[in-house]
Amino acid sequence: MDNAAILNALKKHFALEPHSAKILVVGLGNTGISVAHFLQKLGFNFAITDSRDKPPLIDNFFQVMPDTPVFTGGFDEAAFKVATHLVVSPGVSLTEKSIVKAIANGSKMVSDIDLFACSVDAPIIAITGSNGKSTVTTMLGEMTKSAGKKAGVGGNLGTPALDLLEQGADVYVLELSSFQLERTSVLNAAAATVLNVSADHLDRHADMAEYAREKQHVFSGDGIMVINVDDPVVDAMQEAGRRIVTFSIKKDADFHIARQGDAEYLMHHQQCLMPLALVPLEGRHNAANALAALALGASIGLDELAMCNALKTFKGLDHRMQRVAEIRGVTWVNDSKATNIGACVAALEGYERKVILIAGGDAKGADMNELTPVIKEKAKSVVLMGKDAGLIKQALNDCVPVYAAENMAQAVHISAGLAQAGDSVLLSPACASLDQYKNYQDRGNQFAKAVLGLLT
Questions:
Q1: Residue 56 in contact with residue 36, Cβ under 8 Å?
Q2: Which of 201, 215, 268, 364 is catalytic?
Q3: Active site residue 285
Q4: Closest to 299 measured CA to CA, from 120, 138, 126, 154
């Protein structure tokens, strides 16, 4: 779309015009900077505020936009008072007093995803869920390329959505978080899915019901709803009158798994797409991810053979069920990206034999009792570390042997002493990482370093 068409869309939906709008961008992270570049290109007046004294990206930002007003070290009331529109980054809670007050006084909320949706005429595929969304987004991006189309892949994963506009695409594949969706009002994806809903981010959302409602916003508009019928919360999101495509690893659906002879196959209705054994990812939950990606791609007409070819060579994501090494018959698996209970449950359920589990970190307000049944069924023992290790230990109530570790090196050392040939040791923390690490990547890298240290 050209700038005139984008400006018309912004005026229509948000009364957003360059000559009159005074926009405050809240948060100077990757998203905030992408918004700043977008607004500057279209000639808008804007300022930026950040609660941190010195946001990590501020020096680079001033090199590119030295004249932009930036307020740091807290939220400046004067900046909020004059703002006609707020663009609040996903990392900032909408319950901040300054934001609540500004909206009450008439400021309009616009998200980076709203700005993006007003700027493209190519199809958008929108993917959310508590677990698997990064895998499905990346997988579908590869499928789109395999089908001969240019894919713009980003959003909550990798490249901010607005930065994708510089590249152009035939199809945009966006991973969207609940924080992005709660502040987005004009998304109308050609196809969208909520992969699953389990406890996450309850430090920011009031309860599970509110969290699920925010996820459901991905289905706004009139596009195709891709529904996981194995998840009762998601299944209940179906809307009358909408075109719906279903997937399941447990029952019959539009995309499902069926056994023929000695092998299982990914199916589209009664058509065999490919053997499940050729999906090169560990865990049954990744079969569900594959079906979701196939369903989304088919919904916008991607060639199924091309999608299956991409799936057969898909390498998976770093820190997501990633095999680090096999040492003396013990397999070590890095699932550091499992930052919530649902992700850990999915990882454990993918194993037929019991594993040694390394878990713990910041539980983000989640109820750790939800872990107990699957750990009792799937874990030989558990090594706990981090801020909320005690909460998990209390929830487990001695249903399996539990060991305490101060850090990752100690957790790996303890696990190595427990493991026997044929065992798997799984790092799947069920918690966020920021209590001890820079991020989940740093946590996973420390795990891999400690594991490889066993070879010396």
A1: no
A2: 201
A3: no
A4: 126
Residue 201 among the catalytic residues: yes
How far is it, in rounded angstroms, from Cα 388 to Cα 367?
A: 11
Q: How many CB atoms lie within 10 A of CB 254?
A: 20
Structure tokens at 257: 């798994």
146: tokens are: 């395999």
Catalytic residue among 108, 133, 215, 285: 133
Residue 404 makes CB contacts below 8 A (sequence gap 6+) with 383, 384, 385, 389, 393
The one catalytic residue in 131, 156, 289, 334 is: 156
Q: Place 60 in a pLDDT band, splitting at 50, 70 and 90.
A: very high
pTM of the predicted model as reported, rounded to 2 decimal places: 0.81
**Whole-number Å distance between alpha carbons of 111 and 28:** 14
In the numeric block, which tokens belong to residue 173? 């594949």
Can you identify the CATH homologous superfamily of domain 322-455? Mur ligase, C-terminal domain (3.90.190.20)
Distance between CA atoms of residues 245 and 224, nearest Å:
7
The CATH code that applies to domain 3-110 is: 3.40.50.720
CATH class label, 115-312: alpha beta
- Give me 410's structure tokens: 């100690």
Q: Which backbone phi and psi does 112 adopt, to 5 degrees?
A: -65, -30
pLDDT tens digit sequence for 196-242: 987 554 555 556 788 888 999 999 999 999 999 999 999 999 999 99
Burial class (CB in 10 A: 0-12, 13-18, 19+), 373: exposed
Domain regions of the chain by residue span: 3-110, 115-312, 322-455
The answer to whether residue 217 is catalytic is no
Residue 238, number of CB atoms within 10 A of its CB: 13
